[in-house]
């Protein structure tokens, strides 16, 4: 089985979601199905069909999360030193076209969240950054044309 790199925080979030699905959401949907069945004719019972759809989603997500969690290889970025960019790095960049500074952390595929400035190791930007050092410039293909960034700072927390 191939291991998937992940931070401890990302793994904890997925484990929390899995625990919630199993202990709260799954029992709640089972109760909803039982309640909808009590209303009679299932062929025209929208509540029943909605509850079954929700149950299907929950079971699929549980299987997916169990697979992800079992293949996770936790990497602690705080044990990494240096200025060369690797998994877990917090990277401060400046967009050379707009002079706007941006910060990202490079994380595993299943914990990426652009709203929290967490980019996946498999994203085009992360692929361009891996192995680079402070002061280097990277060019990243984007829908509106290539974007060029200068690496200002690299830290591991």
Automatic annotation (TrEMBL):
Keywords: DNA-binding, Elongation factor, Protein biosynthesis, Transcription, Transcription regulation. GO terms for molecular function: DNA binding; RNA polymerase binding; translation elongation factor activity. Residues 83-156 form the Transcription elongation factor GreA/GreB C-terminal domain. The keyword Protein biosynthesis applies. One of its GO terms (biological process) is regulation of DNA-templated transcription elongation. Residues 5-74 form the Transcription elongation factor GreA/GreB N-terminal domain. Transmembrane segments: none annotated. Gene3D superfamilies: Transcription elongation factor, GreA/GreB, C-terminal domain, Transcription elongation factor, GreA/GreB, N-terminal domain. PROSITE patterns: GREAB_1, GREAB_2. InterPro entries: GreA/GreB_C_sf (IPR036953), TF_GreA/GreB_CS (IPR018151), Tscrpt_elong_fac_GreA (IPR006359), Tscrpt_elong_fac_GreA/B (IPR028624), Tscrpt_elong_fac_GreA/B_C (IPR001437), Tscrpt_elong_fac_GreA/B_fam (IPR023459), Tscrpt_elong_fac_GreA/B_N (IPR022691), Tscrpt_elong_fac_GreA/B_N_sf (IPR036805). Necessary for efficient RNA polymerase transcription elongation past template-encoded arresting sites. The arresting sites in DNA have the property of trapping a certain fraction of elongating RNA polymerases that pass through, resulting in locked ternary complexes. Cleavage of the nascent transcript by cleavage factors such as GreA or GreB allows the resumption of elongation from the new 3'terminus. GreA releases sequences of 2 to 3 nucleotides. NCBIfam families: greA, PRK00226.1-2, PRK00226.1-4, PRK00226.1-5. HAMAP family: GreA_GreB. Belongs to the GreA/GreB family. PANTHER family: TRANSCRIPTION ELONGATION FACTOR GREA. This is Transcription elongation factor GreA. It comes from Neokomagataea tanensis. The gene is greA.
């Amino acid at each position: 089985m191939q291991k998937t790199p992940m931070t401890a925080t990302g793994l904890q979030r997925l484990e929390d979601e899995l625990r919630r699905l199993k202990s709260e959401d799954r029992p709640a949907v089972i109760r909803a199905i039982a309640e909808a069945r009590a209303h009679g004719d299932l062929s025209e019972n929208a509540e029943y069909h909605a509850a079954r759809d929700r149950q299907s989603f929950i079971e699929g997500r549980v299987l997916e999360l169990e697979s992800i969690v079992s293949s996770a290889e936790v990497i602690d970025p705080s044990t990494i030193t240096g200025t060369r960019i690797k998994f877990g790095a917090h990277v401060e960049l400046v967009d050379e076209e707009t002079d706007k500074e941006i910060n990202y952390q490079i994380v595993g595929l299943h914990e990426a969240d652009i709203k929290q400035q967490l980019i996946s190791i498999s994203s085009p930007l992360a692929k361009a950054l891996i192995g680079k050092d402070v002061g280097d410039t990277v060019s990243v293909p984007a829908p509106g044309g290539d974007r060029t960034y200068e690496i200002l700072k690299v830290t591991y927390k």
